[in-house]
Design goal:
By secondary structure, this protein is an alpha+beta fold. Helices cover about 40% and strands about 20% of the residues. It has a 3-stranded antiparallel beta sheet. Strand 1 (about 15-20) and strand 2 (about 25-30) form a beta hairpin. The chain is globular.
Length: about 190
């Protein structure tokens, strides 16, 4: 990303892709980790099969979100400044400036270091306060009934394929997964 400026096109900070461990399931998130899309390579049937495709898509989503979380730190380390006219996501710029979102609000970390212990304490207090108010698990199925996501407070806990699939069902499965993965984000700002 840093080297893209040297004669290459401007970096695309609003779309970050992540694979699962087999390299056959992929997820794309925006600069702040919100779900954008999922895809499967044509050989997904032999690498994942219907039994592991849901967990592969969730793993790819987690990988993409991890990469999105690392981008601000990498850019800060290299003193990246957007070029005039270069479009970037405002949420991404906030993250790059050292702001950490939590359920209670924002914590400003000093430039150059992340205040990890403070963040862990705030998160621990949030979890303690939320014990009695813990929402129930909500199941979200795609419109075709092939893919189901289980989410609590907008955070995906697990997913499953809910129908018998064939290798020819890839497009239908992905359409169902896209719908089911996007739905929990509507109940919360970010998964």
């Amino acid at each position: 990303m840093i080297r893209a400026r040297a004669g290459g096109p401007p970096p695309r900070l609003d779309r970050i892709a992540g694979p699962d461990r087999t390299g056959t399931a992929f997820a794309v998130v925006d600069a702040v980790g919100r779900f954008v899309d999922v895809s499967l390579r044509p050989d997904w049937w032999s690498a994942l099969g219907p039994a592991r495709v849901a967990s592969g898509l969730i793993e790819a989503l987690a990988t993409a979100r991890l990469k999105a979380a690392l981008v601000p730190m990498i850019l800060r380390r290299h003193d990246y400044q957007p070029l005039p006219g270069e479009s970037t996501d405002d949420g991404f710029l906030d993250a790059a400036r050292g702001k950490i979102d939590t359920a209670r609000g924002k914590i400003d970390a000093p430039r150059g270091r992340v205040d990890a212990p403070r963040g862990r304490v705030v998160e621990a207090y949030r979890l303690i306060n939320d014990v009695d108010r813990r929402p129930t698990v909500r199941a979200v199925a795609g419109p075709l009934g092939l893919f189901r996501v289980y989410a609590r407070d907008g955070r995906i806990e697990r997913a499953e394929v809910t129908a018998v699939l064939t290798p020819g069902d890839t497009d239908r499965l992905l359409a169902d997964a896209r719908h089911a993965l996007a739905e929990p984000a509507k109940t919360r700002g970010r998964l």
